[in-house]
UniProtKB/TrEMBL annotation:
The keyword Iron does not apply. Residues 74-240 form the SUN domain. InterPro entries: SUN1-5, SUN_dom. Keywords: Membrane, Transmembrane, Transmembrane helix. One of its GO terms (cellular component) is meiotic nuclear membrane microtubule tethering complex. It comes from Aquatica leii. This is SUN domain-containing protein. Gene3D superfamilies: Galactose-binding domain-like.
Length: 240
């Protein structure tokens, strides 16, 4: 048991040194180590309990860190209950390493759930065929939507930036199967701007209605006829 605890402590020390610049993780690390040392002191190591505790604390820390990057709560994030309900008329783009990712020797995820998860490393995107696509989200709560955020990997990290989204529209939906949405505005993601761009909802009359379902409609990209890469979409507002 002492051997296992020693390994856990040593691994955690390395992990802490890697994460030292991310504030929320440091505090959670201290709590985890305190629990580990208490177990070791009593010659017990309930590893399953510790792992569950670690999962809960890291999940909470990720949420805090993720919100801190732009200072706004994301009601679409999967960690807190957000989900992808459908991708109407949108087909995943499956292909191995291509120009945009050759340097990193990685592959497209082609899983829409990546849109509601932290992380925008090259290749960690939902790639779909063509320049247009639709993705529907279920939020964790009913929300008066005030803004949305579209995030792409930094343009300096990829060779080909033409698959980045450009023009897009957002709709509020009455339910997951709604055929008609409430237009929340037309927006443009600027490739030369910050990788994380937040857009205030333009249609104030519609935004006074609360929604639990949202559709993101990509209308164009930056010139790639084969596929578009979406990295992260967030929904912000006031919880009902």
């Amino acid at each position: 048991l002492d051997f296992i605890t020693g390994d856990l402590s040593a691994s955690s020390d390395v992990w802490l040194s890697d994460m030292i610049d991310i504030g929320p993780f440091v505090y959670d690390f201290e709590s985890i180590m305190l629990l580990t040392h208490q177990c070791n002191k009593n010659n017990i190591l309930p590893l399953s309990n510790i792992m569950k505790y670690i999962d809960e604390r890291v999940e909470r820390a990720l949420m805090v860190y993720d919100a801190d990057k732009i200072g706004i709560i994301d009601y679409a994030i999967e960690l807190s209950g957000g989900s992808i309900t459908s991708t109407p008329d949108t087909s995943p783009f499956y292909r191995g390493s291509v120009n945009i990712l050759e340097f990193f020797n990685s592959q497209y995820t082609s899983n829409p759930s990546t849109l509601i998860q932290p992380g925008t490393l090259p290749g960690q995107c939902f790639a779909f065929k063509g320049p247009t696509g639709r993705i529907r989200f279920q939020l964790m709560h009913l929300v008066y939507i005030t803004a949305v955020t579209l995030e792409h990997t930094h343009r300096n990290l990829v060779i080909d930036t033409t698959s980045a989204p450009k023009d897009f529209r957002v709709y509020g939906l009455d339910n997951a199967k709604s055929t008609i949405g409430h237009d929340l505005g037309l927006y443009e993601y600027k490739l030369e701007g910050n990788p994380t761009q937040t857009f205030t909802i333009k249609n104030k009359d519609i935004s006074n209605v609360s929604y639990k379902h949202v559709e993101l409609q990509i209308l164009s990209n930056y010139g790639n006829p084969q596929y578009t890469c979406l990295y992260r979409f967030r929904v912000h507002g006031d919880k009902v």
